[in-house]
UniProtKB/TrEMBL annotation:
It comes from the Bacteria. This is Phosphate import ATP-binding protein PstB. Keywords: ATP-binding, Cell membrane, Membrane, Nucleotide-binding, Phosphate transport, Translocase, Transport. It is found in: Cell inner membrane. Residues 31-272 form the ABC transporter domain. InterPro entries: AAA+_ATPase, ABC_transporter-like_ATP-bd, ABC_transporter-like_CS, P-loop_NTPase, PstB-like.
Length: 277
């Protein structure tokens, strides 16, 4: 059912509370993954994935090495297509639109879905130009508008005060933790709905890690965040829901409190208590 149809239904059948509440539930889902399978050549990396990701929540994806976490994340902005041997079946709906359908232009998708990687990867440019890069590609040339976007994005990523007097300096001169917040600011500059984060703190020291974790908590007020992490304390600290992946399957997906206190599946319990992985 498309979002428009959902909204129409709300106004048409607002005397039927069950339909209204079902429609409201649908509106809160940003990604709806249905029976997703993915192969790299012969390797069956994702198996029958069914996940509904809520808007404006932090969703953590945990699981042992090689279980398909990054692959799943990279299907959500279609980065996985860069691997020529990839084949997928099933469906991923982004707010009611099928993203695997080639009529959904990948450039369009990536204006809605930004990504932050494991290692900070600023461009070899000034701090200012790193942030202005995306907006310029989208045709924004007005200096005043760009200045505003740069400041807003850097403030949004809690790094403005540290860099406001050195915007023309090369981004490589920043510390690792600052570079990662700069990369988050660069993502914010394109005003996405969703931010994908692939182990964003694994290359950072504990202090920078905490800053990013605090930032994620702030960002979820405005964005839907999906974060792959090996750090279970981190998943427990910052996420609302957690999906536990194992051998390409989702073993369990639930509220984070539940996953970490009363998991349904023994394999989840074994993993979070450190018995494997
Ligand atoms: N480009 C690729 N070509 C072929 N196989 C791949 C490719 N990328 C990943 N795979 C395989 O797909 C499976 C899932 O890998 P993926 O990187 O998604 O796991 P992961 O859970 O993110 O692992 P890690 O925690 O180590 O990063 C693995 O068997 C991996 O070897």
């Amino acid at each position: 059912m498309s979002l428009l149809t959902v909204k129409e239904n709300i106004s048409m059948v607002n005397n039927d509370t069950s339909v209204v509440s079902a429609a409201r539930r649908d509106e809160q889902i940003v990604f709806d993954t249905k029976d997703l399978n993915l192969w790299y050549g012969e390797t069956h990396a994702l198996k029958d994935i069914n996940l509904k990701i809520n808007e404006k929540e932090v969703t953590a994806i945990i699981g042992p090495s090689g279980c398909g976490k990054s692959t799943y994340l990279k299907t959500l902005n279609r980065m996985v297509e860069l691997v020529p041997i990839v084949r997928t079946t099933g469906e991923i709906m982004y707010k009611g639109r099928s993203i695997l359908d080639k009529s959904f232009k990948v450039e369009d998708l990536r204006t809605h879905v930004g990504m932050v990687f494991q290692k900070p990867n600023p461009f070899p440019k000034s701090i200012y130009d790193n942030i202005a890069y995306g907006p310029r590609i989208h045709g924004i040339r007005n200096k005043k508008v760009l200045d505003e976007i740069v400041e807003k994005s850097l403030r949004g990523a809690y790094i403005w005060d540290e860099v406001k007097d050195r915007l023309k300096e090369n981004a490589y001169g920043l510390s690792g933790g600052q570079q990662q917040r700069l990369c988050i600011a660069r993502t914010l500059a394109i005003e996405p709905d969703v931010i994908l984060m692939d182990e964003p703190t694994s290359a950072l020291d504990p202090k920078s890690t905490l800053k990013i974790e605090d930032l994620v908590q702030e960002l979820k007020k405005d964005y839907s965040i999906i974060i792959v992490t090996h750090n279970m304390q981190q998943a427990a600290r910052i996420s609302d829901r957690t999906a536990f992946f194992l051998n390409g399957e989702v073993v369990e997906f639930d509220k984070t409190d539940k996953i970490f206190t009363k998991p349904e599946d023994n394999r989840t319990e074994d993993y979070i208590s450190g018995r494997f992985g």
